[in-house]
Amino acid sequence: MNQTLIFWPMIAQVALVYSIYVLISRRRIQAVKAGSAKTSQFRENQVEPPESLFVRNNLSNQFELPVLFYACCLALNAVGAVNPATLVLAWLFVATRVIHAWIHVTTNRLRRRRMMFILGWFTLAAMWIALAWKLAMG
């Protein structure tokens, strides 16, 4: 199997992060225009307006669990462990992150958001197990 296919889910995850950056910028601009925020408060980023708070929180989330995803994808590629199963797991992880982000920046319903987080967590754990298995089996 083409080992570089694992980079496509990584690129999709990066695209999600960039889209969250665009969204936070838009929400902050809207908050300033609406008068609920001042541009000066973003200098130190200590007070986030309600319009962009969930987006900022989601942006922080994109540098937590996904960091382990990037590392795992790179390791899977490096040891030649990219196969249909690991590729499906990688795409499933990205799908859970997209859905998680969508919930977080819209309704922020914790029950649904948590379900997506847990599914992504287990998916990523399976990827790491697949990597460990490949290393153990040679």
Please give the count of helices.
Answer: 5
Instruction: Tell me what portion of residues adopts beta-strand conformation.
Output: under 5%
Shape: elongated
CATH class: Mainly Alpha
Describe the protein in words:
By secondary structure, the protein is mostly helical. It has a single domain, classed as Membrane associated eicosanoid/glutathione metabolism-like domain (Four Helix Bundle (Hemerythrin (Met), subunit A)), CATH 1.20.120.550. The protein is built from five helices and no strands. It has helices at residues 7-34, 50-61, 65-78, 84-105, 110-137. Helix 1 packs parallel to helix 4, helix 3 runs parallel beside helix 5 (110-137) and helix 4 runs antiparallel to helix 5 (110-137). The two termini are 17 Å apart.
Task: List key phrases describing it.
5 helices, mainly alpha, 138 residues, Four Helix Bundle (Hemerythrin (Met), subunit A)
Outline the fold blueprint:
Elements: H1 7-34, H2 50-61, H3 65-78, H4 84-105, H5 110-137
Helix pairs in contact: 1-2, 1-4, 3-4, 3-5, 4-5
